[in-house]
Write a structure and sequence with these properties.
Length: 369
Amino acid sequence: MLKTKLLFLCLFLWSNVLFAVTTIPVTSPVTQRPDPPCSAVTSECDLGYDSDAKKIHYLKLKRLAYISLGKWNGREFINVANPDVPTDNQGADFCITSFNEDIYDVSDPKKSRGTRVYTDFSMSLTSTNTSTNGLFLVNTSSSSAKPIPVKLTLKGTEKNTILSNDIELFNNWSGEIPNSSITNSGTCNSNSLVIEAVVESSAIIASGATGDFRGTFKITATYVDLKVEHNFDVTLSVSPVLQISGLSDISVGFDGTDIDKKMNFCVFVFGGTGFKIKGDSQNGSNGSFLLQLGSDTIPYILSVGTSSDDSLIPLTNNYSSISPTSTVPKLCKGRQGNMQIRLRIDASNVQGTSSGVYKDTVTLTVAPQ
């Protein structure tokens, strides 16, 4: 009678990506850029200011800084408020305010002032990029790169009393802002606003280019015959991105024959034509792969290649180059795979070993080519 041996082989797979862009939280601080002659972006820094000859009607725009979306690392969305500093409303505020102020002594407007009455004003947004009909970020170094659409939303802060609903902005948008509902004397305390910028990863991928992207937009406010306006930038840095997914542990049983098992996984590549890959065995050394139980070891072979390739490359602890034959959309989500890994164990290497569970942990590392 042939006596069978109980033997299970478990291979744990881990992934690692080198040189990918480091994750930047959505609420990371955004550098503020004061415009001359302001020394800082404060409530006293009037980026735009206009008034009539007798100083009765006023229109001011304060603290509108630029928006930096940081570096893209494969996130589905990137969104940052303008400008983003540690506050309770995910973004510091800017404000536009309009008001009438009676002056008792016209000859000396600073000597005596009457009651300040806040008034509604009109606001508009336009893109300064005349080559695109919409809100886009344009690659600053490559004219062939597709522009990246950006969604801009006007929001009120928690202290805001003039804007009850978010307003999605578009090129040549204009609207009335109900500034007249303000009842206190704090000009920017009750009518502070935030512009939020959102970019989707699918739009970044569709651009097909890395580098720095920038969009310049103009905010304009008008009241009576007064007008203030100011440009602000939205910037985004796109670097080559690699993302590996779809790996799971491999468990097989030994039935006396050679073991040969394949598994699909995905390596998403953006900003390059290929990548290089290597594998490191926890139990093996010098590029070898070993399953281990106590002092007993079983050598095995791992090989990798594209999912449509029949001739795979043996995996070692040195990098091997891979050129994917197809791209996988949406950052390898779901069960899509453009790569495969193959595990092979010769039956002769298993025979004569002790019964039990043999294990190894392999770390797969991908890096830009």
